[in-house]
Amino acid sequence: MENPISISMLNDFIFCPVSIYFHSLYSGVEKNLYQGKSQINGTKAHETIDNNTLSNKKDFLYAKEVYCEKYGLIGKIDCYDINSKTLVERKKKVTTVYDGYIYQIYAQYFAMTEMGYDVERLIIHSIDDNKNYNIDLPERNKNMLLKFESVIQQMKDFDMDNFYQTNAEKCKKCIYAPYCDREVIDNDVD
Ligand code: SF4
Questions:
Q1: Rounded to an integer, what distance in angstroms lies between the CA atom of residue 35 and that of residue 25?
Q2: Using CA positions, which residue lies closest to atom 1 of ligand 1?
Q3: Which of 147, 178, 171, 183 is nearest to 15 (CA)?
Q4: Tens of pLDDT along 22-61?
Q5: Number of structural domains found in the chain
Q6: Is the distance from the beta carbon of residue 108 to the nearest atom of ligand 1 less than 6 Å?
Q7: Is 158's pLDDT higher than 50?
């Protein structure tokens, strides 16, 4: 059996596969040493969730560990509302619903349904401005489902030695750029 893919890595992979390497490398290091303010805020939002401190109401499941055999995925959900059968993924602040966010909640959805839970709604929640973004179930968005499956396959086939980042804009925004030998620098001068 192949090693399962961590659900939390889907978004990192879309941004840049090399960032997963750095993410793992620095996972035990004090975050202040390398993360920017916005990343630290996002991490804090998730720490609250992971530590299960938001609520222990019996109608909700928080940070439940899940596994999906079909796609070979492992990780944790954020929140599942048992009564409304809704999976919620909370983010510090959502300005754009990136495909990576949708792939993460799809992964949680497939794992939960495979484990026998009913899931009827998917929501991405923006904590700072208290906004909800409804996400279609994968069965209702075939195009997004195909993209999700394609990313999973790309992750399984990924070959680090032959990967070259081509998008200098990503490197400009990347917190790992100071340590990365794949960084692309845009030499265009405005
Ligand atoms: S600096 Fe560029 S190549 Fe390196 S991890 Fe970041 S985005 Fe990827």
A1: 13
A2: 177
A3: 171
A4: 888 776 555 554 455 555 455 555 555 555 545 556 899 9
A5: 1
A6: no
A7: yes
